[in-house]
Amino acid sequence: MKITVTGDNTPTIHRTIQLVVGAPELAVREGEGLADVAPGSEVKARPAFGNRGKSGLDDDLSVVVDVKGQATLRRQFSNCRYDKADAPTKAVCTFPRPLPAGAAYETDQSFTATVAETGRQGAITYTVYPAPNTPSSAQLPDSAPRGTGAPLGFRPVDGGLFTTFGRESAHSAVQFLTTRTRDLQVNGFALRGQVGQTNDISVKDLDGYYEGGVFLTLPEGVSLAWHPTGEGHEELYCGYVDEKNRKVLCPAPLIDPPTLRFRIDKRVEGARGTVSVQPDPEHPDPDLTNNTAPITVEYVD
């Protein structure tokens, strides 16, 4: 737009203003998946982002990195805050950097996650926000531990193939599966309640170590309580396969894990049961020692 301003007692002023119709649009490099990662090894992720919108972004930028699954972050960068001093799983880095339209960058160093020795799967995710738009759930306090190494920086890259999200945020991930993916595992758990009381508990492994049915032997003094059977209800319930011997099958989960509805009939000190999974004959299980775990009872007076 060309603007001319005139007045009776002032010189004529000419101005040219460029108007841009559009907004910033954050974009990130497409995620990737890694297979056959060795347990105990390292997985790296290098955040890369750009602005594929029509106008620049003048706010500071926040890069929020989270580790999911059986891995933890290395506390590397002095200009990033971490959720814990030891074995963190989250980092928040803020950068005083404008992001012009068409610009794209990647971090000059990679974030490093160490996979647990028994790890099966996980992901390093990262989300880029204009700093004022960073949600409270993604932030860390100023008092959070800082990294111990050199500060994290950026370098320009070609962002032509980045995936575009919008002006509020953009996210990507490096997902991984380890060589222990076929190692079925279960965790033990406790049945807690009063004698005569009926309770529900979700039967699942916190790390998602199985996808099929799970077999239980209930501790002595514990029985299944009434629960819906057949079709027509949304929840899955564990059911008897051998009531006399307290043998129970918890079916493979659909969306939510199956529910064990149990009743503590009497107090039996030291009563223990088991939870177990059966290996898939088509995919040999490399470690059968972790296919069974104990079920205990905690009595509440």
Provide mean pLDDT, rounded: 89
Lateral arrangement of strands in the main beta sheet: 4-16-13-7-10-9
The amount of beta strand, in percent, is 35-45%
Query: What is the helix fraction of residues, given as a range?
Result: under 10%
Keywords:
single chain, 301 residues, mainly beta, 6-stranded mixed β-sheet
Task: Write a structural description.
- With 301 residues, the protein is mostly beta strands.
- It is 0% helix and 43% strand.
- It has a six-stranded mixed beta sheet with strand order 4-16-13-7-10-9, with no helix packed on it. A six-stranded mixed beta sheet has the order 17-25-24-19-22-21, with no helix packed on it.
- Strand 9 and strand 10 form a beta hairpin.
- The mean pLDDT is 89.
